[in-house]
What does this fold into?
Amino acid sequence: MAEESTHSVPAPRLLPWHDAAVSQLQSAWASQRLSHALLLQGQDGLGKRELAAWLAAAVLCEKSTATLEHCGQCTSCALLAAGSHPDLIWVAPEEGKQQISVDQVRAATERLTKTSYRQGYKIAIVEPAHQMTGSAANGLLKTLEEPTPQSLLVLLTSRPSSLLPTVRSRCLKIAVRRPSREQALRWLQAETGTAIEPQLLEFTGDAPLRALEFARGGFDELNDGMQRSLGQLLAGQNDVTQVATEWAKSALPQRLTWLDLWLMSAARSALGGSVELFTFPARSAHLPSLSRTLNISALYAMVDRLRALKAQLARTALQRELAIESWLIALLQTLGPTSAAHR
It folds into this structure.
């Protein structure tokens, strides 16, 4: 669910809500005005990676035409399908790391200056571009200012404001926009063969690919795990450090979203004076009754603190376990047994 060189190159794929971005790319290509640097921007879960892979396939295809399509049969298409095209460089954080290093960017930009192996374009795709170090981002500037002929640099990001203004200003911006709720639900039903709860799409921020993953069992797994670890924590049966470490290892953005919705549900329960209101969207109550009267102001303060934490962790992965642990201690002081906060 994250975007990812620990990640393999995705298969080229266009999704229904990509139409506007594809039209913009095809128009620029047909008129020979496609910029040497593109910024594909949009929230996670909209298929930016698949769109970038489609663009690479269309540009590198030996039978590429003015319509910007790929044949799927030529040698270049076969190399792409095998994940071994020598003129495609996919740059992502190395395994175990959260940022793209200056050495990675230098290696990619150096390859862009070389002669193409297939006598065509050379393409470097950087994702997530907002996770480049400052030195790595600066390392792109020469390539952006003095591009090599038949080279294409594609930056993928869900947070364009986190990029250097000098980088953003030198790229053609391609917005990958969210589909309407109705379009997304139709697509999800076609993919899964069953109707999807609108609340599940809401949980993912209207990101269809994330919703698809959750619809195929990912949500129940996340929900059960969060119920278990949080329930144990509130009962004083688990340690905040252990829980923080567990949460930091996987699906952290989704865990934080879950907590946000859970706390808002707890606030509704307190305001309405009924445990029946203490539910996750479209689901029954998922945690035992809390052991003390809920302080509504304190609940909303925890929501504010959670959202600030989510924004902080989106900018940097440094000390994430400590940040989560600090938030959990505050949660226990608000909701759980006083003694549990110090376990």
About this structure: Residues 121 and 150 are 5 Å apart (CA to CA). The longest strand covers residues 151-157.
